[in-house]
Amino acid sequence: MELAMSSAIALLVFAGVYLMLRARSFDLILGLTLLSYATNLLIFSSGRLVAGKPPVLREGVAATTASYTDPLPQALVLTAIVIAFAMTAVTIVLAMRSRADNRSDHVDGHEDAPR
Amino acid sequence: MSIVIEIMLVVLLAVGSAFVLVGAFGLVRLSEFFKRLHGPTKASTLGVGCLLVASVSYHTFIGSDPQPRELLITAFLFITAPISAFMMAKAGLSLRMDDMPQLPGRAEDTHVPERPDHAPDERE
Amino acid sequence: MLELLLATPFVLALLVGLLPASRRRLAAWLAGMAPVIGLVLLALLTSLVLDEGAARSSREWIPGLGLAFSLRLDGLAWMFAGLVLGIGGLIVLYARYYLSQEDSMPRFLSLLLLFMGAMLGMVLAGNLLLLAVFWELTSISSFLLIGFWHHRSDARDGARMALVITGAGGLALLAGVVMIGNIVGSYELDVVLASGELLLAHPLYPWVLVLVLAAVFTKSAQFPFHFWLPQAMAAPTPVSAYLHSATMVKAGVFLLARLHPALAGSDLFFYLVSSVGAVTLLVGSWYAIFQHDLKGLLAYSTISHLGLITLLLGLGSPMAVVAALFHIINHATFKASLFMAAGIIDHETGTRDMRRLGGLRRLMPITATLAILASLAMAGIPLLNGFLSKEMFFAEALAIQGHDVLRTGIPVAALLFGAFGMAYSLRFVHDTFFGKGPRAVKGEVHEPPLFMRVPVALLVLACLAVGIAPGPTIGAALEIAARGVLGDAVPAYSLSIWHGFNLPLAMSAAGVLAGIALYFGLRRLFDLHAVVIRATGHRLFRLNIDSLLRNAQRATKAIANGSLQRSMVWLVLAAVAAGAAPYLASWPEGGPPVPDLAFGQPMGRLEWVLWVLLVGSTLMTLAHYRQRLLAVIVMGGVGLAVSLNFVALSAPDLALTQLLVEMVTLSLLLLGMHYLPATSPTERSLPRRLRDGAIAAVAGLGTGALAYSMMSREPVGIAEELLARSLPEAWGANVVNVILVDFRGFDTFGEITVFGIAALVVHAMLRRARMAPEAVMPGPPVKLPVPADLAQIMFPLTLTVSIFLFLRGHNAPGGGFIAGLTLAVPLLIQYVIQGATSVESRFGFDYIRLVASGLAIAALTGLAAMLFGLPFLTSGHYDLVLPLLGTIPLASAAAFDLGVYLVVFGGTMLMLSMMGTLKPSRLLEARTGVIDPARRSPLTAEVD
Amino acid sequence: MTPNGSPLGLLEPAIVASMFVVSVAMLLSLYRLLRGPTVPDRILALDTLSVTAIAELMLLGMYIKSSIYFEAALVIAMLGFGSTVVLSKYVMRRDIVE
Amino acid sequence: MSHLPILPVLLPLLGGALCLFVEHRRFGAIPQRTVAWLSMAATLAAAIALLGTASGGDVTAYLLGDWPNHLGIVLMVDRLSALMVLTTSILAAACLLHACSGWDRRAPHFHALFQFQLVGLNGAFLTGDIFNLFVFFEVMLIASYGLLLSGGRGVRMRAGLHYVAFNIAASTLFLIALGLVYGVFGSLNMAELSARIASLPPADLTIAKATLGLLLVVFCAKAALLPLYLWLPDAYARAPAAVAALFVIMTKVGIYATLRIGQLLLGEPAGELAGYGQDWMAWGAVGTLALGALGVLGAPRLRVLSAYLVVVSAATLFIAFSLRAEAALGAGLYYLLHSTFVVAAMFMIADLVRRSRGDEMRDLTHPVASPAVRKVAGVMFLVAAVSVAGLPPLSGFLGKLALLQAVPEADVAWVWTAILASSLMVIVGLVRAGSNLFWRVPPPLPEVVGAPPATTRPVETVATMLLLVLGVALSLGAAPVVEYTRATAAQLMSPQDYVRQVRDTDPAWRNP
Amino acid sequence: MFRRWFPSIPLTLSVVAFWLVMNDAFNPAHIAFGLLLGLVIPLFAARLDREFARIGSLRGVPRLLMHLLWDILVSNITVARQVLGRETRIHPGFVWYPLDIDNIHGIAALASMITLTPGTVTTTLSGDRKYLLIHVFNLDDADALIAGIKDRYERPLMEIFP
Ligand code: NA
Ligand code: NA
């Protein structure tokens, strides 16, 4: 399972970085979005992978890691998701404005990118 | 839990998952969009409905944590599925993916324009 | 008193500088007071210098850096201070009449006083760091003075060059001084001067010496840094007379003399200083002959005389030091008067070109007499002061001990110096005051105002007085100065004009004769007036600076070329390097870093399905990225897969949040796509794609490997304690939510701030934006009455669910963030189905204030804890018991979560409504294409 | 499974089998999502995927005897259609909010 | 208990929220400015008080939510954080003043964004939790996006896109590193991390190095170190003056973080990890210094030149901090103060110059036409240039001097060469810029048709002068400042004390 | 006055019911809070309500729902067989269904029911709201289909939404 998760992270980073290195603002946004998935999964994994033990305490079950997974990485991922969302929103609007103002959706604002 | 209930649950599970599968199968198997549109929207509602009933009964009879609220999911699905289907169909029509008959009387619906003859015919 | 002496010019500089440009007379009077007061103070201090060797005062500035405001007036400083103040006074008087109406008198005099103060400070400094401070201050103020006529490009160039060269020297000095301080352990001059042996013996001594000499040579215009001085002649003449003859250029030799006790005495010092001095002396005097510009000639002559002084100091013998000091005074007097005379000529004739001048002795006899006398002093003719120090120099040159080359070379150089000096002095006199002319000069030429001549006359008088009666006039002063450098080692010497017929006298005579022959011979042989010898130094310098600037521009443009992709590539590469380096470094020992693949929990069926879902969607997103709509749809699969992974791996809250955010992000992307091209163009460069692919692959593999390596070790977190304390201390069963609103509530606090700001940013960027969609479908907006009606049933129910999720969040999956989005999404669907205007007209919340309220509520909830003397964000809990209704648990965390709820809802709605209700741009409308529905491809929903 | 929970012992195998079947359904939907060919097909596939995901979540909840996934399923049911609506609207008009 | 540590975060946050409430066309500018200034004044007062508590040398830990430090989030006040907060507040006051000359009315939400920027900056300086540091980085960044983009158009949007995209990428990397930090070390509290790293099993050394290396890369990217500085010149040069001036402190946040990590996590107790990455950063810094100085030389416009000055000062700081010597640290901190104020002033002057031309693209070879601007801006430029070039007697010289003195003998050669050579290049660049701008004779005035002759706005001038006066004050009253920075360095060099003081802080009423 | 504070009694009731089911608790506190929501939420929801349409007798609802459920069950099996069978036997087609009902709630309900019943999907409502375009999975007899829908759904709906 760990290998599967790592490979998924690797693939997401690969796709994300490749798209992040493209010249069009929208591709860049797609890349950053994929990267943020990868990041979230990685932070999430820092609590290790535990199936079927959500950290919502139930009566009569001892509140230990034997019955519940580590809740902290989940809280971190939540924060990360929210922040990534905020950043994505700003980037999209910025891409729109840059496109409208500079007449190109090339990240450098002109069709012929510098070499 | 009585045997009857258990059998009932097993049947519900079987029927539900079977319909879910059929819906998805139709999605893969059928050859054009408007045909595919039928499979999932229907089978899923019934399939998921059965599974939800099974789940509610299961949680109720197993005594640990009765969950009648899961029925609300079904309720939501019954409201939203038609909206989804309606929107997807309209999207399909806007791309002229199938012929539609002339409206009897006056042609009014401006959002589904005439299909020109040279339009590409998308079939698999 | 020392402080007062130093402060006077600065205070007056400030006062003068604040005067309006029209108050010329007042400015001159005020400025004149500075040297007068200074001289009086200096005179009062003289006895102290005589009695105790030096007057001292010290004040702390920055003890931590060894920088103290200590002043020290010893003999050397006394002499220089006298020079600075005395000539300074004459210059002020001269400048009063020299400056024209267009030039701002207060500005000029203020800068002049600033320079005077800097020079005084350098001279008086009793701390090497303080000396360095004032040293650079002289550079800065001289830069401003040289560039006084900044409308002239030669003035700007000259000023820039002077600052760059002397500034570089200043940096070297700073380095040298810090080194000295490190070696000696103090920057106090008294300590440093007493540590000569320590310094000489130190392995870093050569470095110290080279650095200090770099400062000396640049400031005193020694070869090969001499070229800035002629360029600085673009300055107004008072500046040249003051800075470039009497004071600033002497700062270098002053420093040499100042540190003589500490640094001199080594072979390196001897060879380096004397040879540089000798070369400078020859180069300067030779070039001087061929200058057509009066001031140019004087400048090169100055270089040559500075070379002489440097050479003398380099020789190092006590007598040579005395000669150097004597020549410093003599040179200052005759050269300053010559510059002023040149200024007068320029002032009256409008030119300084000797080829156009001539015969001025008839038109301005007094000035001519004065200038001729000063020139003769410069040439070293007996009965004038220049002769005396020249004789001393010749005597020292002949007495050199050391290497053969120097033993013969220096006397030869001395002889040549005498001859060349005579030649250019003759040229100055002959070409200006005798012969035909002047030609093509402005108006009528006559004597300048009386007070413009007075300073010249006073200086020439001094030349004569010293030249005729050196003992009574200068003897005492020279003695004081020499004692300042040499201490008790001052040699016995006699200051008289006649030492009998000796070798130096013969050399003098030979030099004079050779000079006369040289001048007239040169004139005859090849027309002196036509010869233009260009000193290469400044051209080389300018070339270098120009190419430096050009190359800097080119390099900067090439490196920071404004390409985002380049920044990104470097970021990824840096990250890859940082991640891989430790593994690569440990490779030799432990073999290649292969993770233990056997580790791991078995994969369940669901996990496999989710893995396939995730991997498949990701790959397809990548494959379709150029068709943006397809990429966005397929990426929805990635999001769903990630959410389901969270579900499978015990994180329901995450799954919920991810799903909701997914939904809103999708909407934002689609809203944005309306204003962006539908596709990305094909990239031409295959190597580029391969390169990026390789980089991405390495980054991916690296991240994956790190992640695997992390996951395959024992968990070390703080989960146990969080789980154990969640319910009893934070009254919440959903530990993730407890962390969000309690344990790490401050993170959430920051997070909602980020979210709120993001919404504000979107609002700010779009509020006044007018944009044209990339392409539009024909026809009016679509009406969707059936979905609209059905969605209306949804809305109250989702509102209920939202409240449910909010209230239960502390004990079950949910919470403020999720609830906020749950409320926003159905509204979004309303926007989509019914159109923005119809929703906004009925649902007009002030979303901005909603965000602000949310932030305020969260903050105030946190503040409430302070009332109980507890830290910010400490949670509280109270069970409210009501009749009939039973116990209602109230938690402050819920209030905090309410803030979250409001911010999230308000922020999301603000973004969506801003993006949904953009005003079209009239200007850009023309660019918008109308799509022919028939030409759209069902495969991409775009026109191919 | 508790002894009183499933007299025939069929329930747990049935749940597992159902999860398997639903998983297959998810994969089939995924195939359509990735394969297309048309845009509405992909939207439809995404929609189906989220509905099958609800089924899978309910089965998972039965499997671990917990209702912890109720909220997730509810939200998918409630809002999963949102994506469908938004995407369809974009296909229709190239603008989702008019 | 004293709530002082939270105030520099809380006050601007409330101020920002309040700004949004009073923001309305109906109200005009006065209420917003009033709120902004009240908040600014309160924050400044809090910062001063904070410095007072920290100057004694104690480390104050403020346990948010009253949770023990390893469970919750803790705010840390030591000499360094107090100094940074105060620097930020002072700089911000000048920037706010500058903006109140008119820009605040042109940029929507300016005041709120400005206050939130302060929240982010102060939070980043005060937090003792590394994930919380990330959060406040983001607060700071997103507010900076707003400040950069609000009211802007055209090329600024492109520059903004670069700035935003690069920072998001860097933040993503930050998150990856944080995931690894928690996964490997099991804590996010910096004091706790310090202790855990000190007792790290040797088997974990490699992944620990990778993790911390990634963190350092992130901070270097934010601080604009080679090769990660490319984003900076354009973004800073395009920002409105008050904003660009405030941004000067933003690179310092990256430097601060590097310093914090370098001393607390990679300090002496870290054993084999002690000083990890410092050599690379030192070389990167030398390269940055060279390229930054080249940038100063080759800058086409004064704002770009100012932006490269930011790069140069960042590189100088990196060099100072990478020496890992107490005196060098102290010198670096002094230099940090100086460069913050003076470079910020330079941005304001550049704006005055730009406005006087009424033309964004004119380069440094075009003299300033308006006589009023020539005079005022010329004098201010002179002071700023002297200071920033490290010429005496202003603060830049003292900073450079302190740094030169502090270099350990083994490093003298390269450090001195780097610093002195770059100084010379900066001098050349500034002399060229100054003489072109203020000395050359402008073409006859009516070249720009219809544009009214540019004048100086008094408020703007006062704001700029304020910063310059601060620079002068830093040199005249250098002794206590130097003493404080030395003490700060000493405190930084003994992370064990820091960790102990944090760990010894017990919650007010909870069990530890 | 009453209308203003209680825009829709059915909505209030369904919100209360919804709340109680969702919380799975029927204690006084929950009922009180449910009532509060039932009071407040319709006020908000009313702001979205674009078209006010009357609601008539609800007596026909259970019967209608029974019909619907039965049809869903039966058609599901039919359609499943068709999906699993040979595709060439399927003859899909569009049908314009003429509407008699003009209450928008009714039209929406009808469109939903048609869609929920396997084998038929409502795709469009004509601009004049007089026709629904229905896509039929296997179209044998269009008129029979129209008649069936009219009989089983539209007529009962016209009673509920007059
Ligand atoms: Na729109
Ligand atoms: Na149907």
TrEMBL record, chain B:
Q: Pfam families, per this entry?
A: PhaG_MnhG_YufB
**Cross-referenced InterPro entries:** PhaG_MnhG_YufB
Q: Where is the composition biased (Basic and acidic residues)?
A: 106-124
Annotated region (Disordered), positions in chain: 100-124
Superkingdom of the organism of origin: Bacteria
Show the GO MF annotations. Answer: sodium:proton antiporter activity
Q: What keywords tag this UniProt record? A: Membrane, Transmembrane, Transmembrane helix
- The portions of this protein that span the membrane are 6-31, 73-93
Q: What is this protein called?
A: Na+/H+ antiporter subunit G
TrEMBL record, chain C:
Record domain Na+/H+ antiporter MnhB subunit-related protein: where: 790-909
Give every MrpA C-terminal/MbhE domain span. Answer: 688-777
Annotated GO biological process: monoatomic ion transport
Record protein name field: Monovalent cation/H+ antiporter subunit A
Source organism of this protein record: Arenimonas caeni
Residue ranges of the NADH:quinone oxidoreductase/Mrp antiporter transmembrane domain?
125-401
- Which residue ranges traverse the bilayer? 6-22, 29-50, 76-96, 108-126, 161-184, 204-229, 269-290, 297-315, 321-345, 366-388, 408-429, 450-469, 501-522, 567-585, 605-622, 629-648, 654-672, 693-711, 748-766, 786-807, 813-833, 845-870, 890-912
Start and end residues of each MrpA C-terminal/MbhD domain: 613-677
Q: Which UniProt keywords are listed?
A: Antiport, Cell membrane, Ion transport, Membrane, Transmembrane, Transmembrane helix, Transport
Q: Which part of the chain is the NADH-Ubiquinone oxidoreductase (complex I) chain 5 N-terminal domain?
A: 64-108
GO molecular function list: antiporter activity
InterPro entries noted in UniProt: CPA3_Na-H_Antiporter_A, MnhB, MrpA_C/MbhD, MrpA_C/MbhE, ND/Mrp_TM, Proton_antipo_N
Q: Where in the cell is it found?
A: Cell membrane; Membrane
Membrane topology category: Multi-pass membrane protein
Q: Name one GO cellular component term.
A: plasma membrane
Automatic annotation (TrEMBL), chain E:
Q: Where in the cell is it found?
A: Cell membrane; Membrane
Which PANTHER family would you find in this protein's record? Answer: NA(+)_H(+) ANTIPORTER SUBUNIT D1, NADH DEHYDROGENASE
| Bilayer disposition of the protein | Multi-pass membrane protein
According to UniProt, the name of this protein is Monovalent cation/H+ antiporter subunit D
Against InterPro entries, the record matches this protein to: CPA3_Na-H_Antiporter_D (IPR050586), NADH_UbQ_OxRdtase (IPR003918), ND/Mrp_TM (IPR001750)
Q: What taxonomic classification does the UniProt entry list for its organism?
A: Bacteria, Pseudomonadati, Pseudomonadota, Gammaproteobacteria, Lysobacterales
Membership in a protein family: Belongs to the CPA3 antiporters (TC 2.A.63) subunit D family.
Q: One GO MF term, please?
A: NADH dehydrogenase (ubiquinone) activity
Q: What's the source species for this entry?
A: Arenimonas caeni
Q: Which GO terms describe its biological process?
A: ATP synthesis coupled electron transport
GO cellular component terms attached to this protein's record: plasma membrane
UniProtKB/TrEMBL annotation, chain F:
Q: Name one GO cellular component term.
A: plasma membrane
Q: How does it sit in the membrane?
A: Multi-pass membrane protein
Its main localization is: membrane
Location within or outside the cell: Cell membrane
GO molecular function per UniProt: monoatomic cation transmembrane transporter activity
Question: Which keywords appear in this protein's UniProt record, sorted alphabetically?
Answer: Cell membrane, Membrane, Transmembrane, Transmembrane helix
The membrane spanning regions, by residue number, are 5-22, 28-46
> What family is this?
Belongs to the CPA3 antiporters (TC 2.A.63) subunit E family.
Q: What is this protein called?
A: Na+/H+ antiporter subunit E
Lineage, broadest ranks: Bacteria, Pseudomonadati, Pseudomonadota, Gammaproteobacteria, Lysobacterales
